[in-house]
Amino acid sequence: MKEGKLFGLGASDMKGGDVGNLLAAASFIGQDLSQDIWVVGTANEELDGKGSEDFARYFSQNCSYESALCIIAEPTDLEKIYIGQRGNHFMKLHFSGKAGHASVQEHFQESALGNVTYFLANIEQIFEELKTYKNNQLHVPTFVVTSIYAGDEKSPNKTADFADLVVDCRLTPELELVFEQVMTDLADKYHFTYEDIVTPVLSTLTDNQAPFIQLLTDLSGAQTTGASGSNDQGFFENVGIRTVVFGPGQHDQCHIANEYILLEKLEKHIEILQSFIKKIQEIY
């Protein structure tokens, strides 16, 4: 700790939020509450959310609550309450072509990289078309190529007979309804096949007029909005657990060296959760 900051890997994203959850819940030990409090930590959040998916399934199959609410303590600076998120598909696109000698210029266009070049030249047009699936809360989908693998580096004079692109696609609920058809049309037009490389995460959107969201808004002064990235919210929503994201970490501290969380934010987070737990007993 130094100058009001707690340093450490994951301090903002999101171990600080975990600490806040634990300390807020622990302060009610021995008190007679009408609602149960669960504090849950799950694995694999950064990749495919498998831990949350498994827990949500366990909870829905083994617990018989009339209703349940969830607050995920991902970093929102205590200034925003994420009521929804775009879904995500991490996909691998497979392009094929004809291998040939690289001394012949025409062999490039016949190669897999010739097809890839045509596809990449039209990425912005693809993005413009996806904008038609805009959501008022979650905004527009995105379609971003993150890596390319092609050819044989041990044969630099041979054109590529294959090329694989990894794409990070963020989906609105509107795009999800037609996503398979959209991808089929793109695959036909640009001559590729595709597959998901991790289990897709569905988009989700919670009613921002729900009483528990109004309560959290009143207590924190935070604004409701949609998350730009994705998190595990959808797994809980899918089993009927109304879920928002609200935590003390700072976005600009995520995944960087010398990551820290402000102790003032952490203390405020605990106070907000304590007030929330007390008042939510009167609503549900």
UniProtKB/TrEMBL annotation:
Superkingdom of this protein's organism: Bacteria
Outline the extent of the Peptidase M20 dimerisation domain.
83-187
Q: Which UniProt keywords are listed?
A: Hydrolase, Metal-binding
User: From the UniProt record, which GO molecular function terms apply?
Assistant: hydrolase activity; metal ion binding
What parts of the sequence cross the membrane? none
Protein name stated in the entry: Peptidase M20 dimerisation domain-containing protein
Q: What species was this sequence derived from?
A: Lactococcus cremoris subsp. tructae
